[in-house]
Design goal:
Oligomer: heterodimer
Mean pLDDT of chain A: 87
Number of strands of chain A: 18
Strand order of the largest sheet of chain A: 8-9-10-1-11-16-12-15-13-14
Shape of chain B: globular
Helix content of chain B: over 70%
Helix content of chain A: 25-40%
Distance between the termini of chain B: 12 Å
Order of helices and strands of chain B: HHHHHHHHHHHHH
Largest sheet of chain B: none
Radius of gyration of chain B: 24 Å
Mean pLDDT of chain B: 85
Largest interface: A-B, 86 and 81 residues
Structural class of chain A: alpha+beta
Number of helices of chain B: 13
Strand content of chain B: under 5%
Chain lengths: 525, 312
């Protein structure tokens, strides 16, 4: 009842809209799309990129999903960014930075003369402060608050081109938290404040492309920012086109209706395009793994022997070679080879059904029922079939519960699934997947549905360690310990595929699963 | 006339309120919620709770329903939970795509289906009849998305006659060009259905006593067929068309996905998957209004064709 006023206010506008809707449904001849825009655009130097799902949120505080992130990556900048090719942290909006000896204060010197898109004024340190304060404010409902809350104590702006982050403790890896990705993308105070809810799909950035138009269910249009601080992009327009079906997207690429096929998954489609003349297929090891997370608080899975038996029973190399036809990599830990912190010095669990059976016997487990909960999305609902079959071979009665995505999230968040298939996607920040999967703070509804807390102290200490070598040693220890305790069995490391036509030059594939149009030039249509 | 118009309006309101109510509770009955969807991998108990509070999902469900009804009555269908944009705007902006697809699809279906059904009835039992009916059976049996994929492969990929995807660039001819293949695929699947029902409607009339009398009176077979039988079969044929129209809106969802076209179907589908309650409600409200309106229009049409039905 308290909200009555806010509901009464927009009623007249709402009524007008309803009348418009009714008249549109009534008059079947009303086809505004055909008459409204006489689109006289020249198609030259336009880059068309396939996306597999529609965009929904372009506000960095709440952004999620690779389609949103791919659009945002072309519109926004961060203080620093990952080099597309090497994942090295390089300057973006910050020209340089200074880290205090105890790694508690990070001071960034900002570029001067950077302008916000569409006349929203000059970029200043105040916008940086606004962006981070906004993510930290619980009322914003930011999905990424957990990445910075408890780490950042305050954000200060000594002058217009200097911003200082004061941290609550020593953190040698703080730069990872201010890279151009998700909450690291800087927004304009003026634009966000003025637009309110509308900002979500009308993003204002400083990046190489300006957001122009979103046509729901169809396309997203960005235009080149001629004043971009690193120089104007080589392409006049980026057009993200929604094509859900991968086969249809492959045909469209072959017919050159699109230039770049982003987020290719199906092995058949990859094989097909590899054989197509005039098409180049790119691939890169991702910074994400797909895992079987086992609830360590449920009997008998609290017994390490049972978890190890499961690991030995699953033929993971065959999964990669047979099921995925080598379009994925084998994984040894939840950090992939894309991370410099990746360690091979971890316990391995080779395929050994005999050993699995004897481990089960040792643990005194008979007629074990094991349920794997997985989302009903390709390939998660399919590759679990050979996995369950492997488990059945050693006498574990494995069943698969495929749930529609929303229902899967609900089940996983409730925290009482026996096991589930979980993938972790994110920037090449080593602490991100480790915290997400192994930390107490990620207990359900977070991703730690294993309810594992064996590396809590190591996770705490790693960011406080100033010495890079020692930090790496701690990461190696976290990987060794978690693979020994085995709350999470990495099934495979993801590998990202993209394809493009011969007209596309300069496309660099990154490991974050976004597509960046800045360096790309497109010839012809 | 006025009375029947009023009763149609009442029917419209009752149906729409019913559909919207069922949608409201059904969406909340299925597992999953928008806060979890949006927070995804980074969900913490605090974040979920605060987002749910922000979206008003923490209130008792009947309270939410009351609020929703009140807002709907004032014409405010709320904002999309996910994007924060007015739900009705997104639905309305997608409407022209769906209407053009459904209308052209139905036109093609009628142009193909009705003559085929009539021909089949005329030559009942011959090879022509059997050929038409088997073809129609195939048309019904093959799922529309499969026909769509085959059409893309055949006409776009191999023959290179049509674009594979999208809805065009805003110019009339370009959009029509993009529309032809999906509308034809939609039309064919509905045409098969119309052909079969037209045939049986015709055969039923041809078996009536007055047709036998007419034959006994020596009236020519052609005259009996087109003057007597066809006119009387027109009402059931129209009924079939009005029912298949609603059905074709359902098929249009699949067509939209296969041909990567924007439209109501794909928008509602997306909204269901992301648990975007407001968007689903707005979409189904518009869809239900469309279906009821079409059926009402057809009801009036029956009256014009067959004045006996006006009295009722």
């Amino acid at each position: 009842m308290a909200n009555d006023n806010s509901h009464d206010k927009p009623s007249s506008i709402g009524r007008r809209r309803a009348i418009q809707a009714l008249s549109a449904t009534g008059m079947l001849s009303a086809l505004p799309g055909w008459f409204n825009f006489a689109n006289a655009q020249t198609p030259s130097k336009r880059l068309t990129i396939r996306i597999g799902a529609d965009i929904s949120i372009l506000d960095p505080a709440r952004i999620f999903q690779i389609e949103n992130q791919s659009v945002a990556a072309n519109v926004y900048n961060g203080l620093v960014k990952y080099d597309q090719a090497t994942n090295e942290i390089v300057p973006d909006l910050a020209e340089s930075w200074d880290i205090s000896d105890d790694a508690k204060v990070y001071t960034f010197k900002l570029r001067k003369g950077v302008q916000w898109h569409k006349g929203h004024g000059a970029f200043t340190s105040d916008d940086v402060k606004f962006s981070y304060d906004r993510v930290l404010n619980p009322d914003t409902g930011s999905a990424h608050r957990g990445q910075v809350a408890g780490i950042i104590d305050s954000v200060e702006t000594p002058d217009e081109s200097t911003v200082r982050f004061v941290l609550s403790g020593t953190n040698a890896e703080f730069l990872h938290k201010v890279t151009a990705f998700n909450h690291g993308w800087i927004v304009s105070r003026k634009a966000v404040t003025e637009m309110g809810d509308k900002y979500n799909l009308n993003p204002i950035g400083t990046g190489p492309f300006v957001f122009e138009q979103w046509i729901s269910g169809s396309e997203v249009r960005l235009s080149a920012n001629p004043d971009y601080f690193e120089g104007a992009p080589k392409t006049a327009e980026l057009l993200f086109r929604l094509i859900r079906d991968e086969t249809a997207a492959a045909i469209a690429l072959e017919r050159k209706e699109i230039d770049i096929f982003f987020a290719m998954q199906q092995p058949e489609v990859i094989e097909r395009l590899r054989k197509t003349a005039g098409v180049t297929v790119l691939d890169r090891e991702a910074s994400s793994t797909v895992n079987l997370v086992i609830n360590t608080t449920l009997k008998p899975f609290d017994d390490i022997r049972v978890r190890r038996a499961i690991a030995h029973a699953i033929n993971r190399p065959a999964l990669v070679k047979g099921f995925f036809r080598d379009t994925k990599y084998e994984a040894r830990t939840v950090l992939t080879g894309a991370f410099p912190e990746y360690s091979e010095d971890v316990p391995d669990y080779p395929y050994d059904p005999e050993l699995a059976m004897s481990l089960l016997k040792e643990a005194g487990v008979k007629n074990l029922r094991f349920e794997i909960t997985t989302p009903g999305l390709n390939p998660y609902d399919k590759f679990v079939v050979p996995v369950a079959n492997d488990l059945n071979q050693v006498g574990i009665q494995a069943t698969i519960r495929v749930l529609e995505r929303g229902a899967y999230q609900q089940a996983r968040s409730a925290g009482n699934v026996q096991s589930c298939i979980t993938s972790v996607v994110g920037p090449p920040d080593p602490s991100a997947p480790l915290v997400t999967l192994y930390a107490r703070q990620s207990f359900p509804p977070g991703l730690n549905s294993a309810r594992y807390e064996g590396v809590e102290d190591l996770l705490q200490s790693v960011s406080g360690e100033l010495d890079a070598d020692k930090r790496r040693a701690i990461y190696a220890e976290i990987q060794r310990k978690t693979m020994e305790d085995l709350p999470v069995l990495p099934l495979y490391a993801d590998r990202l595929f993209m394809a493009h036509t011969d007209a596309v030059h300069g496309l660099v594939q990154n490991s974050m699963f976004t597509v960046q149009g800045y360096s790309v030039s497109a010839q012809g249509a | 006339m006025i009375r029947s118009f009023l009763s149609s309006m009442i029917r419209l309101v009752v149906t729409v309120v019913g559909v919207v109510t069922v949608t409201f509770f059904l969406m909340r009955a299925i597992p999953g919620d928008p806060a979890l969807y949006m927070l995804g991998d980074y969900a913490t108990a605090d974040a979920v709770a605060s987002l749910q509070a922000k979206l008003g999902l923490d209130r008792p469900i009947l309270h939410q329903y009351g609020l929703f009804l009140k807002q709907t009555l004032t014409g405010d269908l709320g904002s999309s939970v996910v994007t924060g944009q007015p739900a009705l705007d997104e639905i309305v902006s997608n409407l022209p795509w769906s209407i053009s697809l459904a209308v052209l699809g139905m036109a093609i279906a009628i142009v193909i289906g009705v003559p085929l059904g009539i021909t089949s009835a005329r030559y009942q039992g011959t090879w022509l009849d059997r050929a038409v009916m088997v073809t129609a059976l195939l048309g019904i049996s093959f799922p529309v998305f499969w026909i769509g994929l085959v059409a893309i492969l055949g006409f776009s990929h191999w023959a290179g006659l049509f674009p594979t995807l999208g809805a065009g660039n805003g110019e009339f001819w370009n959009e029509l060009y993009h529309l032809i293949l999906p509308a034809t695929v939609l039309g064919i699947s509905v045409a098969a259905y119309i052909a079969r029902l037209t045939r049986s409607a015709m055969l039923e009339v041809l078996g009536q006593d007055y047709v036998r009398v007419a034959r006994a009176m020596g009236i020519s077979e052609g005259r009996i067929f087109y003057k007597l039988a066809l006119r009387n079969a027109l009402v059931p044929i129209l009924a079939v068309i009005s029912v298949t129209f609603a059905w074709s809106l359902g098929n249009a969802i699949l067509i939209e996905v296969v041909f990567s076209r924007p439209g109501l179907g794909s928008t509602i589908m997306k909204a269901v998957l992301s648990r975007d309650y407001q968007l689903v409600q707005a979409g189904l409200l518009v869809l239900a209004t469309a279906v009821v309106t079409i059926n009402t229009l057809f009801n009036f049409l029956y009256g014009i064709i067959d004045p006996r039905l006006q009295k009722r």
